[in-house]
Amino acid sequence: MRFFDDKFNILIYYLSILFFHSMYDIHIEGILSRLKSKDWWNNTLSDNDEETKKYYSKHYKKALKVHCFEWTCFIHIPIIFYIYYLNIIVDWKLMLLSLVINYLFHYITDNIIEEMNELTQTKQPIFYIQCIFTATLWLKFILLK
């Protein structure tokens, strides 16, 4: 019997990706949660001169890029674990493509939300959907082969 023939194992696979997403967002992200916020930079720099404000005005994007890279790597940990555990040979280009697509989607979405100055609660379901979508693609096209 293959590992993913059992519905319980598939459930554990999905839950582990959502768990890693939650662990990163709640426990690991730390200072990046503030640094990736445009408002945090504006409030912190409110007493500074205009030249300083202009210099730091886009620094939130640098922190956002770091956050997106970390988040992307973190949600791929369960996928990499299952690839290793099941001894599946995966082309490194496919893994790189998955990492790049997830990074870009997360960065573009986070950046749009930050520019619109939306509340954090409105964006969270988007990233749960992204986790499930990524997990499903890997499960369907790679892990169930």
How would you describe this protein?
This protein has helices at residues 7-28, 32-35, 38-44, 50-56, 59-85, 92-116, 120-143. The protein has 145 residues and is mostly helical. The protein has one domain. The mean pLDDT is 80.
User: Runs with pLDDT <50, length 5+?
Assistant: none
**How many domains comprise the coordinates?**
1
CA(first)-CA(last) distance: 13 Å
Question: In one word, what is the shape?
Answer: elongated
Name the average pLDDT.
80
Please, how many helices? 7
The main sheet comes to: none
Provide the succession of SSEs. HHHHHHH
Quaternary structure state of the chains depicted: single chain
Percentage of residues assigned to helices: over 70%
Cα-based radius of gyration, to the nearest Å? 18 Å
Report the structural category.
mainly alpha
Number of DSSP E strands: 0
List its traits.
single chain; mainly alpha; 145 residues; 7 helices
Give a concise summary.
The protein is mostly helical and about 140 residues long.
SSE order and pairing:
Blueprint: H1 7-28, H2 32-35, H3 38-44, H4 50-56, H5 59-85, H6 92-116, H7 120-143
